[in-house]
Amino acid sequence: MFADVLIIGTGISGLSFAIKLAQCNPEISLVLISKDQVSEGNTKYAQGGIAVVSDFEKDSYEKHIQDTQTAGAGTCNPKVVKFVVEEGKDRLKELITWGTQFDTQKENLHLVKEGGHSEKRVVHYKDHTGLHIQEALMNKIKSFKNIQILENHTLVDLITDHHSKEKQNRCYGAYVISKKEESILKISAKITALCTGGAGSLYAHSTNPSIATGDGLGAAYRAKVHMDKLPYVQFHPTALYHKVNGNTFLITEAVRGAGAKLKNSSGALFMNEYDSRKELAPRDIVARAIQKEIQKQPEKYVALDCSEISVENWKKHFPNIYDTCATLDIHLPQDPIPVVPAAHYFCGGIQVNSNSESKLKGLYAIGECSSTGLHGANRLASNSLLEALVFSHRAALNVINALQEKLPDSSFYKALPEWKGDTYSNSVEIKEIRQLRLRLQEVMTNQVGIFKTTNGLKEADIEMYEIYKKVQKIYNQHKLTNGLCELRNMVSIAHLIIQQAQSITENKGVFYNQDYA
Ligand code: SIN
């Protein structure tokens, strides 16, 4: 199979990048692959919204820039922060023309406040903004004839000089699992874009779906693409303590923005002891505060007291949380919601420039799998969907130009070798994979979580090497399976996080080594 552009991942980054490319040039061929159904991924679970300056009477670009820098502990790239904040308004307008709606109040967008924001500026669609955006983009994409979508296709490896025997430092597409054909396909492409999200599944508790296993990051690692800031893993302060259908359920920061307060098991408010911004401090501060309180008390959660939010407000702005809590016998607003921090977002990833180009020519990384410089050591709430929109737009314009350049001709792509490794099987069950995945999550959660220590990182390093050796052994002895592919990526990224964490010498943003405190 050949495409001008191969896009891996179908969240907001992959879909909006594809739409923009197809709009700019209906002649180019696009193949989009998703590991599961197109709809499944982190975007769908984003509750809060998109941080965009729109009320210029109260808010300003300068304030949003300052809030982003403050949340990022002064480590964001100022140039990137500026253009992302300033370009947000146009990207939002475009998203609306593509069929997305946002809540309004009279003539204006309804704006909410989240942690680290000095003004109300988050636009949203009730409390399921991501799901609504995902659906609108999926609908829009159907109108383009030059986009082919392949569901249930998992990235295995990128095709690079290593496979082609060229020396161009270039990416030529990817090898991917087709579950339907039970085989590994070669999809060669002039341009490849990773829009594969993060790897929240490295942790026992994550707001991400279980498919967030860092597949793009793992493939980039094997292709020797530069990655940075991987240890800056953001924990969302408030995930529901009880699992919902086996998954961790997010309680959006907007609930705290609407007045909800955090209380420990003695019923005492505690955020004032940690930060003057209390519940609306940046999320690294709130997550650490909650974790500290949990360590001091018998209960493994703290309470989110929502009694200040009226039933009408719940039903209008947070119907998803309201209904989900009711299924667990938590009746809002009178009952407090038991909450815990959970792994949420990778602030680092594949290092890219301001057009989302990685250091491997022809390879772009957009959204959570990339490291653009916007987030620094800690992402500001609701800046992730914004980043995805701004960078997919910039990447698309860049790709349109890149496709005009002299690139190898079609015979070169045809001659690229088929997958040479093991074949794929849907039916093989490798028991150890589940145990190793759980062990990896345990190590990451206990030693490489919100609070780290130098010794803990050393122990995690040793333990991860043991897991890696076992994974390699399985890889060498068995046919490839989806679970094996995921585990191979997880162990690589866990290893990289631990390695990079050991070389960080000061606490900033989400990175916290107790030995430096
Ligand atoms: C939330 O709604 O609290 C999450 C939004 C985000 O991750 O920025």
Structural features, described:
This protein has 517 residues and is an alpha/beta fold. It folds into 3 domains: 2-231 and 347-414, FAD/NAD(P)-binding domain; 233-344, Succinate dehydrogenase/fumarate reductase flavoprotein, catalytic domain (Flavocytochrome C3, Chain A, domain 1, Alpha-Beta Complex), CATH 3.90.700.10; 430-511, Fumarate reductase/succinate dehydrogenase flavoprotein-like, C-terminal domain (Methane Monooxygenase Hydroxylase, Chain G, domain 1). The chain has helices at residues 12-24, 42-45, 61-71, 78-97, 129-141, 161-164, 215-222, 253-257, 283-296, 311-317, 319-327, 384-402, 410-415, 431-447, 454-477, 482-502; strands at 2-8, 30-33, 50-51, 104-105, 108-109, 111-112, 122-123, 147-150, 153-160, 171-178, 183-194, 227-228, 233-240, 261-263, 302-305, 337-346, 349-351, 363-365, 370-371. The chain is globular. Helices cover 38% and strands 17% of the residues. The strands form 5 sheets. Strands 1, 2, 8, 9, 10, 11 and 18 form a 7-stranded mixed sheet that branches. Helix 4 crosses helix 12 (384-402), helix 7 crosses helix 16 (482-502) and helix 14 runs antiparallel to helix 15.
